[in-house]
C-alpha cells in the first residue's frame, strides 16, 4: 500500500486510484463532492455515497464539497435542500467551503456551450422527440445524422440566443453536441446539452429559459470546483465517455489533472425501495407517515427510528465499495445498529403487553426506591432510580399457569423468578377475564434477595423485567417489520401494492418513570424487549419506536 494512504481501512479500487494519482504527482491533494439532486429526502444509498466521498477526504486530508445538482427546476424544492443539509451534518460530516449549486454556474455553462458551437461541436436541433428517437438508431443499428447537424456556427449562435430568450417553445428545439451518431455508446450519439423549460427555478427564478442536461452540467461543475475524483454509481459508466469528451473539448479544462469519473455499485437493500421517485410515491399516496416514516430507508426515517450516525457509518464500512451490483441483506444494517446500541444505549424497563402482579406479602402503600445501572457493563454511567411496591406490571408472555417445559425461565404458579434489579418472587394464583386472559397474578416476594441469591442456596435461574404500577407511565409502542413482502419490490410495476400490512403494529403498555423525560431519537435498551427511542413527532405523549430487536430475528 502506498505511503499516501494513511488509513487501516480496507482498501478498494477507488483508494488504489487515489494512491496512484498521488504517487505519480498528478494531484497533490484530492477533492471529492457529494452532488444530490434536491428532489427528495436522502436515503441509506445516499449515505453510502456520503460516507465514501466525505470519508475518503478525511483519510487523505483532502476536500469534499456539497453541491446541489439543481438543473431540473420542475422536480426540485427548497424543503429538500434543507433536509439534505441536515442529513449530511447528522451523519457526522461537514462540507468544505460554501454550499455549491449547479445553478451558480448557469452563466458559465452557457459560455461553454458557445465555445462548443464555435468549435463546430454543438448545434441547435429541431427534430421532435419522435424523430430524434428514430434518428438515434438502436444498439444494433447506427444512428443517422440530424439534418440540422451542419447549420453554420453563426446561425447556431443566433439560435442559442433565441432559445435563451424564450423565443422558442418548450420542446421545439435543443442544443446537441456533435459527436458521433454511429458510436456503440448511445449517450455519445449527439447527446442533448440544453433544453428549453419555462419553469421557475428555486434559485434563479425566471432568469433562464434553457437548462443544461445532467451530463453537460456535472462534469463542468466538477471541473470548476476542482474536483479530482468524481464518484458516482455504475449506471453512469457509459456516460463517462461524454464526461471526458466535454472536458477534453473545453480549453479551460483539457488538462491532465482535470476531474475523472469513477463508478461504484449502488446500494440496494432487501424488502424496501430506494429510489427517490418511489419513496415520493409512497409519501404522496399517504401509504407511509411521511418522508421520515421509521419504516422507510430514508436517513430521516432511520434517525426517527433510533439509528445512530455511527451505526450507519459502520454499516457502510461493512458493505464496502465495489463494482458488483447486489442486494444487501437487511441483517447487515440491523447488526450494525445493534452492535452500536449495545455499547451506547442506556438501559431501562418497559412492559409492552402488561398484566398486573400483586405482591401479597409486601407492605401496602409502601413504595421503595431501588437503584439500577444505566449500563451494566459501564458502571461509570451511574445508576437510575426504579421503584418497587405491592403492585407491579410484567409482560403477559412472562407468566404461564404451568411452565410448559424445563427451559421455561419465567414466572409460573409455584415457580420462582427474579424481577430484574429487584427481588425474587413466587406466583401463587391468578385472575382471568371473561375470555380467559390473565389479568392479575398474585405472588409473594423474598425480602432477603435484593441484589443477592436466596440465603438457603435455592437457585433462581429466570429473570424478567417489570415496572412498578403507581410510578409507571403509560406509553405507546410502535413495532416495525419489513415494509414490503418481497425481497425486491422495486422491480414490480405496482410495488406499492406489495406493502407488508404488518409493517407497523401498535401496542400500549407502561414504562418506568425515568422515561418520562426521554429524549426523542435517543435509543434505549428496554431490557429483554429490544431497542426503542421516543418518537420525535409525538412530543406530548410517550410514543416509542422500536429500533431493532436485541437479537437477530430477521427471517424468522
Ligand atoms: P435516486 O435514484 O434514489 O433518486 P439519484 O442517484 O437520482 O438517486 P442523486 O440525488 O442524484 O440521487 O444522488 C446523489 C449521489 O448519491 C449520487 O452521486 C448518486 O450516485 C449517489 N447515490 C444515489 N443512490 C445511491 C445508492 N443507492 N447507492 C449509492 N449511492 C447512491
Ligand atoms: Mg437523480
From TrEMBL:
Binding site for L-glutamine: 69, 214
Residue numbers covered by motif 'KMSKS' region: 273-277
Glutamyl/glutaminyl-tRNA synthetase class Ib catalytic domain mapped to chain residues: 30-342
Broad class of where this protein is predominantly found: cytoplasm
Signal peptide (UniProt feature, chain positions): none
Sequence ranges assigned to domain Glutamyl/glutaminyl-tRNA synthetase class Ib anti-codon binding in this UniProt record: 345-446
Top-tier EC class: ligase
MF terms (GO), sorted A to Z: ATP binding; glutamine-tRNA ligase activity
InterPro entries: aa-tRNA-synth_I_CS, Gln-tRNA-synth, Gln/Glu-tRNA_Ligase, Gln_tRNA_ligase_bac, Glu/Gln-tRNA-synth, Glu/Gln-tRNA-synth_Ib_cat-dom, Glu/Gln-tRNA-synth_Ib_codon-bd, Glu_tRNA_lig_a-bdl
EC number: 6.1.1.18
CDD domains for the chain: GlnRS_core
Keywords on record: Aminoacyl-tRNA synthetase, ATP-binding, Cytoplasm, Ligase, Nucleotide-binding, Protein biosynthesis
Binding site for ATP: 37-39, 43-49, 233, 266-267, 274-276
Keyword Glycosyltransferase tagged: no
Coiled-coil stretches: none
Ranges of residues in domain tRNA synthetases class I (E and Q) anti-codon binding: 463-535
Catalytic activity: tRNA(Gln) + L-glutamine + ATP = L-glutaminyl-tRNA(Gln) + AMP + diphosphate
Protein's cellular compartments: Cytoplasm
NCBIfam families, per the entry: glnS, PRK14703.1
Matching HAMAP family: Gln_tRNA_synth
Oligomer status and interactors: Monomer.
Identification of the protein by name: Glutamine--tRNA ligase
Organism: Bathymodiolus azoricus thioautotrophic gill symbiont
Amino acid at each position: 500500500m502506498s505511503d499516501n494512504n494513511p488509513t487501516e481501512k480496507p482498501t478498494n479500487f477507488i483508494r488504489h486510484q487515489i494512491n496512484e494519482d498521488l504517487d505519480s504527482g498528478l494531484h497533490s491533494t484530492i477533492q471529492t463532492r457529494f452532488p444530490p439532486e434536491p428532489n427528495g429526502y436522502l436515503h441509506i444509498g445516499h449515505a453510502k455515497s456520503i460516507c465514501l466521498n466525505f470519508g475518503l477526504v478525511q483519510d487523505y486530508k483532502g476536500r469534499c464539497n456539497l453541491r446541489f445538482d439543481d438543473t431540473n427546476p420542475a422536480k426540485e424544492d427548497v424543503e429538500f435542500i434543507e433536509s439534505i443539509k441536515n442529513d449530511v451534518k447528522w451523519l457526522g460530516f461537514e462540507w468544505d467551503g460554501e454550499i455549491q449549486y449547479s445553478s451558480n454556474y448557469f452563466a458559465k455553462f452557457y459560455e461553454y456551450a458557445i465555445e462548443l458551437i464555435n468549435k463546430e461541436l454543438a448545434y441547435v436541433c429541431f427534430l421532435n422527440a419522435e424523430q430524434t428517437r428514430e434518428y438515434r438508431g438502436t444498439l444494433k443499428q447506427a444512428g443517422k445524422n440530424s439534418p440540422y447537424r451542419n447549420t453554420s456556427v453563426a446561425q447556431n449562435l443566433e439560435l442559442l440566443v433565441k432559445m435563451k430568450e424564450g423565443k422558442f417553445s418548450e420542446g421545439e428545439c435543443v442544443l446537441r453536441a456533435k459527436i458521433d451518431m454511429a458510436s456503440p455508446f448511445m449517450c455519445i450519439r449527439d447527446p442533448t446539452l440544453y433544453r428549453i423549460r419555462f419553469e421557475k427555478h428555486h434559485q434563479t427564478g425566471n432568469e433562464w429559459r434553457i437548462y443544461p442536461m445532467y451530463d453537460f452540467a456535472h462534469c463542468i461543475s466538477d471541473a470548476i470546483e476542482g474536483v479530482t475524483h468524481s464518484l458516482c454509481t455504475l449506471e453512469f459508466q457509459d456516460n463517462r465517455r461524454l464526461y471526458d469528451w466535454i472536458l477534453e473539448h473545453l480549453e479551460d479544462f483539457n488538462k491532465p489533472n482535470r476531474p475523472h469519473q469513477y463508478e461504484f455499485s449502488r446500494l440496494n437493500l432487501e424488502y424496501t425501495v430506494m429510489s427517490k421517485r418511489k419513496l415520493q410515491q409512497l409519501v404522496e399516496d399517504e401509504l407511509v407517515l411521511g418522508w421520515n416514516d421509521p419504516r422507510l430507508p430514508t436517513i430521516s426515517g432511520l434517525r426517527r427510528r433510533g439509528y445512530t450516525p455511527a451505526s450507519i457509518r459502520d454499516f457502510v464500512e461493512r458493505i464496502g465499495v465495489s463494482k458488483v451490483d447486489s442486494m444487501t441483506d437487511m441483517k447487515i444494517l440491523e447488526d450494525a445498529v445493534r452492535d452500536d446500541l449495545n455499547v451506547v444505549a442506556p438501559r431501562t424497563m418497559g412492559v409492552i403487553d402488561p398484566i398486573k402482579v400483586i405482591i401479597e406479602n409486601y407492605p401496602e402503600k409502601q413504595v421503595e426506591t431501588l437503584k439500577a445501572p444505566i449500563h451494566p457493563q459501564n458502571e461509570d454511567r451511574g445508576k437510575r432510580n426504579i421503584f418497587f411496591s405491592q403492585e407491579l406490571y410484567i409482560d403477559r408472555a412472562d407468566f404461564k399457569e404451568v411452565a410448559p417445559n424445563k427451559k421455561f425461565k419465567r414466572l409460573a404458579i409455584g415457580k420462582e423468578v427474579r424481577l430484574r434489579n429487584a427481588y425474587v418472587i413466587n406466583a401463587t394464583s391468578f385472575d382471568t377475564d371473561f375470555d380467559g386472559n390473565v389479568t392479575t397474578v398474585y405472588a409473594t416476594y423474598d425480602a432477603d434477595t435484593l441484589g443477592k441469591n436466596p440465603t438457603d442456596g435455592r437457585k433462581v435461574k429466570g429473570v424478567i423485567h417489570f415496572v412498578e404500577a403507581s410510578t409507571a407511565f403509560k406509553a405507546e409502542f410502535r413495532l416495525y417489520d419489513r415494509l414490503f413482502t418481497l425481497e425486491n419490490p422495486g422491480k414490480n410495476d405496482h410495488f406499492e401494492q406489495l406493502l407488508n400490512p404488518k409493517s407497523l403494529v401498535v401496542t400500549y403498555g407502561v414504562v418506568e418513570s425515568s422515561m418520562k423525560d426521554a429524549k426523542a431519537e435517543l435509543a434505549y435498551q428496554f431490557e429483554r424487549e429490544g431497542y426503542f427511542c421516543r418518537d420525535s413527532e409525538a412530543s406530548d405523549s410517550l410514543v416509542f419506536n422500536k429500533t431493532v430487536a436485541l437479537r437477530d430475528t430477521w427471517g424468522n
